[in-house]
Amino acid sequence: MKSFELNDISYLSVPLPDDITRAKENGDFTLAEELIHQKLHFDKTSQTVKRRLEGELAVLTALKEDQFPYNQQEAQKMLEEAFINVKPEETKELIRTNNVEWIYKKGQVYFHRRFVENLVKTRRDYYQRYRYEEENSIDNERQTELDDNIREMKKHGSRRAKIRLKQSIAPKMPISAQEAPFLAHLPLPRNNNHIKHSEILSTKGAVLEVADTNACQRTIAYQTESHEDLFFEVEHRYEIEANYYDLFKVMETQKDFPKKLSKEEQKKFQNELAEKSPHILFTDFLYKLLAELTTKDMTLLEKAYKIYEFVTTQVNYSYMKEYFTIPNISEYCAVNQKGDCGVQAILFITLCRMAGIPAKWESGLYISEYTQGPHDWAKFYLPTIGWVYADASFGGSAYRGHNTERWKYYFGNLDVFRMPANDDIQADFSIVKKQLRADPIDNQRGEFETGQRGLRFNELDWDVTLLGFDFL
């Protein structure tokens, strides 16, 4: 199979053969790879299964390399270094209470590379025991920033900001000239009706293309034959506007709100109501879950709220392994009741579509004075209102912090601390990659490939720097 065909990750919905599954679950990745190669060379293996197996080789590479690097003893030591009053064998308690991501490697437990960060972010007791007070202080400033934004949005009905960023990407290690040509992508803000006056100020590296502002996953692409300077950079600025919607007031006052879309709306939003394998699938389990959350006599707005309520109050935030290592993200999130911002967004989108509510993915960067990094959220369509937003992970964080006002705010609203770059999952760039992407879902940290292979995130240095942020 050609490498770029693996970027079509719909193959993840195909079940793995049982012997490979057993080897993988026990963490014997070498055996799993051997079994895969045997089946790939077996004449009677169907092409559909072969495609799944080709993709599984990339999944196994991700799992065995950098996703879960710490054994139980190393994890216990990291806990003791990061927190006060750590009990002996506290890692075992974290496993029993489902508060850490872990897998087996050759029968031994290994912890996710960001498990300490995850505990600080999601567990108040660990946050209070954290030794690094400066990091907690920055988080407190960020929380204040979010609450200040809500007050401004409610007061004025909208908010605007001008943001200036610098992004860069480069391989961590030297690359041979024999691997030329070299292709790199960095995300850019796309036109989503809230972005104004987006412009590139400067670049470093040979620019191949700047994608159209309406591109589904917008990037600036670089290409070169030289292996001597593989550092690529873009400095850009844009304006963003956010508008305030009080959906709770609508629920209280509009008892006759539509219970279904019009025929014209159903036709117009076919894509936003459809399945998209492997992560947006209307499974029997999810239908049963939806039946627990909603009733037929609810309005579309009430159904959307019940879905938001479930995701934000019953799903715990958790840093995740790479998305393409998960066969079905929405079902994974619902069954395990944990996931990061993107996992929660995909579950929200899937359940909304199943309930007859058009819903879409949006992602890019969260940009403020205190933090800059990847973030995902959702938007959904309501008759008589239009497209509005839901940020399930921000809502869930507010719920855990007993901040009801913020929890309600992120049902219907965003803030101006965003750089939206992606309007859908599993979409091609305008300059299509020929090698396996580091992230086949979307693009937030850039991509880099040689003529022979795609580089994974642990092989790349990606950076984003805030150069200016002004409210307008």
From TrEMBL:
<dbReference type="InterPro" id="IPR038765">
    <property type="entry name" value="Papain-like_cys_pep_sf"/>
</dbReference>
<dbReference type="InterPro" id="IPR002931">
    <property type="entry name" value="Transglutaminase-like"/>
</dbReference>
<dbReference type="Pfam" id="PF01841">
    <property type="entry name" value="Transglut_core"/>
</dbReference>
<protein>
    <submittedName>
        <fullName>Transglutaminase domain-containing protein</fullName>
    </submittedName>
</protein>
<feature type="domain" description="Transglutaminase-like">
    <location>
        <begin position="333"/>
        <end position="394"/>
    </location>
</feature>
